[in-house]
Amino acid sequence: MSDALEKLVQILVIFGAVLTSAALLTWAERRLLGLWQDRYGPNRVGPFGLLQPVADVIKLMMKEDFVPPAADKPVYVMAPMLVMGTGLIAFAVIPFAPGVGIADLSIGLLFFLAITGLTVYGIVLGGWSSNSKYSLLGGLRGAAQMISYEVFLGLSLMGVVLLAGSFDLRTIVEAQRGLWFIVPQLPGFLLFLIAGVAELHRLPFDLPEAENELVAGYHTEYSSMKFGMFFVGEYVGMILTGAMATTLFLGGWLGPVLPPLLWFVLKTAVLVVFFVLLRAALPRPRYDQLMALGWKVLLPLALLNLVVTGGFVVAGASA
Amino acid sequence: MTGVLKTLWLVLLHSAHRRDTVQYPEQKPYLPPRWRGRIVLSRDPDGEERCVACYLCAAACPVDCIALQKTEDETGRWYPEFFRINFSRCIFCGMCEEACPTYAIQLTPDFEMCEHDRRDLVYEKEDLLISGPGKYPGYSFWRVAGKAIGGKDKGEAVGEAEPVDIRRLMP
């Protein structure tokens, strides 16, 4: 009984922490973009503008929750929930630190891939159900983008699985005690970062959104908190991808002196800041360019990485 | 690929750059003296209204935001009975200042004139008149103008020749 209670508390705490970080991330991202564009960003509401997310949420709540008459209502309502929900569910398998984490699945990595793969359906369905040409174009690009990165996203992680010999995320972290997987799996890490950013639909791969050509892409027709949920989903996804890259390549909670949880948070934060830097620096490719890159360059690279890693593992086992 | 890395690096370097933002309410931006802001009506060095109600500003105004009515005092001096600028229409183009023959209407380096109510943006003559001569300290139109007003007859203006007696035949 107390075990279940403890688990419940842990779930609530992680849930709250993730949502709070996602909210703060909207502020942090705007401040960082400001820093890199030689301006300030939100700095008026509260100290350093820290209360900006609160003001944003109040503003979003006050807005009219509009459903276009032509929209396919049930799907239209479901799409943002799918985006935010899948992002939050995937946090169930993240091993934050020894003893901290919701579920220790033996196939945690597969669970992560499966759940994040669902996120794009929120985008495609949102784009489709809005019944607007911009939304449809956004959703279409979301689908096109999905089939170009989803394949090598999975393959780029298989090198890690081969080295650790497990799909269990805790085992994978423990296997990095001597050497973080970023060293033997550097190509895998880079491929995962590229696929991860594509998965997040953030610049440079925010083709489904593409403010400057598609109004707001798949969420053009969304308003109020439905719009907000797409954004919470995006920021939760950023933290999730950062956390996953930390777990798989940067040794998770492992690190000297500081407590394990702090190490995990620090590594994740560095990656999240890097995602923001990508947004600040890089332009968006056309979606046929992205597909060509995905299928002709990154997929072969992922396969090559897998074969070479497999060769080393076999050689190491037979030696 | 190196282009991407270089871009990332250059953007990251901007962390150390100075920010260009002017933190407005606390930190005022520099406004040059010729800034075209809030419109005022100036007075001549004697403290009288410069405006002679010639309507040139109202005619020049591309958005028709200036309204006035000419009247005369007992000495024959022209002045506006009312002078009204609707600042919710004004585009601060400065055409009125260009058109003004007496330097009466002038634009000033001030833009902080927000109101909650549109009606409060209609300025009457009392709101527009300032106590000084504005950008042209020494100038007084009536002192150099040929028109006779009380206390100054024809030919008495600064630099004005005596009026010619057209009925005389002598050169």
Shape of chain A: globular
Overall pLDDT confidence of chain A: 85
Mean pLDDT, all residues of chain B: 88
Radius of gyration of chain A: 20 Å
Largest sheet of chain B: 3 strands, antiparallel
What structural category do the secondary elements of chain A indicate?
Answer: mainly alpha
The amount of beta strand of chain A, in percent, is: under 5%
What is the annotated CATH architecture of one domain in chain B? Answer: 2-Layer Sandwich
Oligomerization state: heterodimer
Sheet-strand content of chain B, in percent, reads: 5-15%
Our Rg estimate of chain B from Cα atoms comes to: 25 Å
Biggest sheet, spatial arrangement of strands of chain B: 2-3-5
Count, helices of chain A: 11
The third-level CATH topology of one domain in chain B is Alpha-Beta Plaits
Report the largest inter-chain contact. Answer: A-B, 12 and 14 residues
- How helical, in percent, are the residues of chain B? 10-25%
Q: Which residues of chain A sit in consecutive blocks of at least 5 with pLDDT less than 50?
A: none
Question: What is the name of the CATH class of one domain in chain B?
Answer: Alpha Beta
Terminal CA distance of chain B: 92 Å
Per DSSP E runs of 2 or more residues, the count of β-strands of chain A stands at: 0
Structural class by SSE content of chain B = alpha+beta
